[in-house]
Amino acid sequence: MPDAPRTIADIHDEYDFLDADDRYRLLIELGRALEPMPEALKTDATLVRGCSASVWVYPTRADAVGSEGGALHFLADSNAAITKGIIALVLATVQDRTPADILETDIARELAPFDLGKQLSSNRTQGIPNMIALIRETAGRYTSA
């Protein structure tokens, strides 16, 4: 039986306790724990624009019993270890939630306690708003479908 996904609050509790080097290690560990994304899904269509590293995000839909519209499940990957960890943080805020729940979530506010702008270079964090926008746009398409 797989471990339950870590909540963004649980990850922050651990992150907040660590020094800078260990925070990098935690991000790398979170990235390594991401569900593998098949190479065939890493296309220009799934590439997130504006990221210094290559980042791919692909939404899937799991129609959960009793869930209006079903939950969205995102596969994502990057060619950079730290960036992959940042992706894991973003996904921890929205993974396997309904499109309506995702639209109600202030992803940037959920990530704010990590203070990524101070912890990491701007090159590493510049694509976060684009990834958030893509996730919100995807959720919006599913709520209006």
What would you note in describing this structure?
This protein is mainly α. The protein has a single domain, classed as Alpha-Beta Complex (Sufe protein. Chain: A). It is built from 8 helices and 2 strands; from the N terminus they run H-H-E-E-H-H-H-H-H-H. The protein has helices at residues 8-17, 20-32, 81-94, 99-104, 107-111, 116-119, 122-125, 128-143; strands at 55-62, 71-78. It is globular and about 45 Å long.
Low-confidence stretches: none
Helicity level: 40-55%
Number of E-type strands: 2
Radius of gyration: 15 Å
Spell out the helices and strands N to C: HHEEHHHHHH
Shape: globular
Ends distance: 34 Å
Proportion of strand residues: 5-15%
Across the major sheet, the strand order is 1-2
> Which structural class do the helices and strands define?
mainly alpha
CATH-assigned fold name = Sufe protein. Chain: A
Taking the sheet with the most strands, its summary is:
2 strands, antiparallel
Q: Can you give keywords for this protein?
A:
50% helix; 145 residues; Sufe protein. Chain: A; mainly alpha; 11% strand; two-stranded antiparallel ribbon; 8 helices
Question: Can you summarize this structure?
Answer:
By secondary structure, this protein is mainly alpha-helical. Helices cover 50% and strands 11% of the residues.
What layout of secondary structure does this protein have?
Elements lengths: L7 H10 L2 H13 L22 E8 L8 E8 L2 H14 L4 H6 L2 H5 L4 H4 L2 H4 L2 H16 L2
Antiparallel strand pairs: 1-2
Helix pairs in contact: 2-3
